[in-house]
Design goal:
Two copies of one chain form a homodimer. The radius of gyration of chain A is 25 Å and the shape is globular. In chain A, 54% of the residues are buried. In chain A, β22, α9 and β23 form a beta-alpha-beta unit. Chain A contains eleven helices and 23 strands. By secondary structure, chain A is of the alpha/beta class. Chain A folds into three domains: 67 residues, SH3 type barrels (Roll), CATH 2.30.30; 209 residues, Rossmann fold (3-Layer(aba) Sandwich), CATH 3.40.50.1170; 128 residues, Rossmann fold, CATH 3.40.50. The mean pLDDT of chain A is 92.
Chain lengths: 452, 452
């Protein structure tokens, strides 16, 4: 709620929340929609949604003038794309799961809602119907991605296999961006004999903003599905912070690397497969990918959810491993430091008995001895872990840790859940974790692949 | 140990481990030192340390010929820099703590040891004595950095303050690279009224390799301490993968981003302060830094070690928060997703009661209610968390989470330990966490600062 001071001025000027207004403060002029004051924040600050879609907060003082210039946008006025059949174009399916790409702002309450139907989402990119034939549109659930669970991956994978085995070229999945990459890892491991592509797309900015990125991501994804020969799970998102091109990232090597930039998704330890312009131009950056072919796609969604991702660092408490074991966890991915280190309490010339209390080695050994799979990755993220370089690394390796090559910690987490869904035999787990199942291990890793 | 097959050939050819050898395999020729077979790895593979310092493994077969060409390097043959006093040059102190920069390889056992004295480390960069006067050299302990504890930060900070208050221009600290950045965060928070600089340097490659980076890092650090006007804790390491220049990164905004590259340390959400060439040329990249001045440096090392760093992700178990509370932890830094999300079980149109089990919100609220400080950061690392954009973010904020702006998760962890060392009052903790104490919060964050 606004302060009484502001409410009095609004009443006097006959301005209501949701109206289009002109506000001057000193020499500055702002035109936009008066937004409600949300529960947090200063009650003495006017919130204006500018025409650019950005919100601006104007601290109220005597230099502020506000004037009503017209009605604001109406609720429920979101257009929906009218679907038409275009048999001459490649057919695709679309699975809509929620996220910013499907939000809209309620100008009366200030709330952001995820209530766009797939057709409403598609209306932000109507040109998509000149690129592909939208054959099947499905909305299995509507979730902010941070609320997803492994069971949602299973649903999505089963649905995806079903759709891919129909007469379509591939699938676009719209998704919230927070954990979009976790879903791309899961789809990559759960879909076997992939003969057609899946493009997962989202938006870093909401559709009410001028900087909305979802439309271009959808268009590039349509070109990717309809007009490339890739048959992998890819994340298709902005490649730069401009609206110039998208990148198709391999589903197991991509990570959200920025909280807000539109090109937040980056390939780590791999080269993006394709550069895709919204006009349909496609450039191959990395030709080492699975090609489209014939054959039935299989969803193999067995997954062990008792798996966790734990970080090792200065002063970290290694008894967290014991807690996981006691709680029935079957797998633990450790984000170690550097080449895959955990504290050992053993190095150097100082062999302080107190230091031993911080050693992860006995806790890892005990977890492995009780049948829990422990996988090592690096919090440095770029590069490869390696148990052979230093003695402390060999201590972790000898305690039974499986070193995860150049896998991203989060991808190793999803992979371990999938592997443990299929076998609890640690020897087999080790074999499968060392195998490149879906592009997650880049055997030909080039150290030039850094910060690109 | 090598296989019997290899041992027989070595005996026949009168080659011993540690000898300089010529090996041909098919058409390829390798010259180097025959290394012992370490405990892990294939016993049928010859390990040769090439003149470049890299090890190569040659699978033994009938095409392999090995010939002794001379003696290998001798143990204990590491030169030590003979220190001389150069009163006309700026005086510095050096604190040597261990790590790869101070290792050497034992060619008889294959082991890597951290037994170089500071003078032996300096002998890799003898030209340092033409840049600065090495006044005081101290070796408080010798540790692989992954084995460090917060108590080691306290020792280093106290020692640093003592040295800085002598007649020197600043300090070079040599350090293992795994958690070098954690130490730079700790020194930044623990040293108050900093009027002189500290350069923390390490090496990503060991001194026996042709690609050793520690010497150039030391030389650039000497230029930084002796010939710049920065009075901050900085990490001075290679700026590119060539031996062309170093970067001085602000101590609270730097992170190890690659397991093996020599330019692994990168500034996140900030511009490196200086570009430093080994010939002494210095270019200012970011003039927003603390300048050298007069005044006594104070070590304020109170630190609460019962602080942890926990990651939230798809399927993560929020009861980990309760475990920390029960175990007496006073602070928890959460690495959330995107803008600072944790699972809430509340979003979208699906309000599945089972989903609620995964919600972090009640666990965070209960932790905060019992006096534990909970700080939110983002696993995306680049960018800023923000509790105002989405409803789920406000749920976390309303539960009492302190949003950590653009702080790195690991820097927020060290800061929270330092803050809780000084007050357990959550209101004061919130105030201090929101304050920029040592450059850890970049108020003028530019979104262009991505992957540089």
């Amino acid at each position: 709620m606004y302060s009484e001071q502001i409410l009095a001025v609004l009443k006097k000027m006959k301005v209501k929340v949701g109206d289009r207004v002109n506000v001057t403060k000193g020499k500055e002029i702002f035109e936009g929609v008066l937004m409600p004051r949300i529960e947090v924040g200063d009650q003495d600050t006017l919130s204006i949604k500018l025409n650019s879609g950005y919100n601006v907060g104007l601290r109220f003082d005597r230099s502020v003038n506000i004037e009503r210039v017209g009605d604001g946008p109406k609720l429920g006025s979101i257009p929906a794309l009218k679907l038409k059949e275009s048999k001459e174009l490649p057919s695709i399916s679309m699975i809509s799961t929620g996220g910013t790409i499907g939000t809209h702002v309620d100008y009366k309450t200030g709330g952001v809602f995820m209530c766009r139907s797939p057709e409403e989402i598609l209306s932000t990119a109507p040109e998509i119907q000149s690129i592909v034939n939208l054959k099947n549109i499905i909305r299995p659930f509507t979730l902010a991605s941070e609320d997803m669970l492994p069971s949602d991956w299973q649903k999505m994978a089963e649905l995806s296999a079903k759709e891919l085995n129909k007469d379509v070229e591939g699938i676009i999945i719209t998704h919230g961006t927070d954990v979009l990459h976790y879903t791309s890892y899961a789809m990559s491991f759960m879909l076997k004999n992939l003969t057609k592509p899946i493009a997962i797309v989202g938006a870093q900015r909401s559709p009410d903003r001028g900087s909305f990125d979802g439309a271009m991501n959808l268009i590039c994804a349509a070109h990717f599905i309809g007009h490339s020969d890739v048959a992998e799970v890819c994340v298709v998102m902005h490649g730069s912070s401009n609206d110039d091109y998208c990148l198709a990232h391999r589903g197991t090597k991509v990570r959200k690397m920025h909280t807000s930039r539109r090109d937040a998704f980056r390939s780590i330890n791999d080269i993006p497969l394709l550069k895709i312009w919204p006009n349909g131009k496609i450039e191959t950056l990395n030709s080492n990918y699975r090609k489209k072919s014939k054959g039935k796609v299989v969803a193999d969604t067995k997954f062990e959810p008792k798996v966790s991702l734990v970080k090792a660092y200065v002063g970290s408490d290694p008894e967290i491993i014991d807690w996981h074991v006691k709680r029935g966890f079957k797998g633990i991915v450790v984000e170690g430091t550097g080449l895959g280190h955990v504290p050992t309490g053993e190095s150097g010339i100082t062999k302080d008995p107190l230091r031993k209390k911080y050693s992860w080695i006995p806790h890892i050994k005990s977890a492995v001895d009780s049948g829990v799979a422990v996988v090592m990755t690096s919090q440095a993220m770029y590069g490869r872990v390696n148990p052979y370089v230093y003695r402390n690394l060999r201590l972790a390796s000898n305690a039974g840790t499986i070193f995860g090559e150049d896998m991203l910690p989060e991808a190793a987490y999803v992979k371990l859940g999938w592997v443990l869904g299929h076998t609890k035999n640690l020897k087999k787990v080790r074999e499968l974790m060392a195998q490149n199942l879906a592009g997650e291990i880049n055997k030909r890793l080039d150290t030039d692949l850094f910060l690109i």
